[in-house]
Amino acid sequence: MRGISLIQVPTTLLAMVDSAIGGKTAVNHPKGKNLVGSFYQPSNVFIDPIFLETLSEREIRSGFSEIIKYGVISDRNLFEFLETKSLDKLMEEDIVGIITRCIAIKAQYVEKDEEDRKGIRAALNYGHTVGHAIENLTNNSFNHGEAVAVGMVAAAMLSERKDLISESTLRRICKLIEYHGLPTKLPSLVHDDILDVMHRDKKAERGYIRFVLPIGIGVEPLLQDIKDESIKQVLEKL
Ligand SMILES: [Zn+2]
């Protein structure tokens, strides 16, 4: 790869605030999203919010799922700002501020754990454990952000059951997701299928799945192995 200097120009909000930063490159495989990939850092990432004008409202809302994720795992101020401004009230400078903040948070995580080997970068997967399974099983009729939104609710419900967050914090997370026009309910899927996909994605042994569990708003989350049985109980309520 020597001599190749990759310049990235993200054209979706989701890429601008999240996937363009960090050098994770992957392709989807029939058995799952991003199953084949490697790390390769581009020499530059150019982000121009003008590309947002090319997107549908649904695609922009999808990007807000990752932005809410950053609020929960790292930035209380961002979370609280999002509680006061829905998409139609956001001005261009707000969007630029949000993108800048999310990039800074992502860069911090990536710098500490560039190749995702220390468990630090894993926090960025908040909402993605159940989210990827939903994306996979709905054949992308739930797009990435929508699936992650439901996944964030699932993980927050697990946290609440373990007393890592209060019921009011769980409600607050759900309310913010709904406020930004994103789903909080599981589409009709067979729960065992969701577990099967999660085990395959995580290459996990039967019995447990590693989850990113929020422990507050704007606080670095915990990684915990959760029993299949507990996950099923949450899926029943989701
Ligand atoms: Zn994502």
Q: What does this entry look like structurally?
A:
- The protein is an alpha+beta fold and 238 residues long.
- The protein is 50% helix and 13% strand.
- The protein is built from 9 helices and 6 strands; from the N terminus they run βαβββαααααααββα.
- The protein has helices at 13-19, 57-74, 76-84, 92-112, 128-137, 144-161, 167-179, 191-202, 228-237, and strands at residues 7-8, 24-29, 32-39, 44-45, 208-213, 222-227.
- The strands form 3 sheets. It has a two-stranded parallel sheet with strand order 1-4. Strands 2-3 form a two-stranded antiparallel sheet.
- α5 crosses α8 (191-202) and α6 (144-161) runs antiparallel to α7.
Topology:
Blueprint: E1 7-8, H1 13-19, E2 24-29, E3 32-39, E4 44-45, H2 57-74, H3 76-84, H4 92-112, H5 128-137, H6 144-161, H7 167-179, H8 191-202, E5 208-213, E6 222-227, H9 228-237
Parallel strand pairs: 1-4
Antiparallel strand pairs: 2-3, 5-6
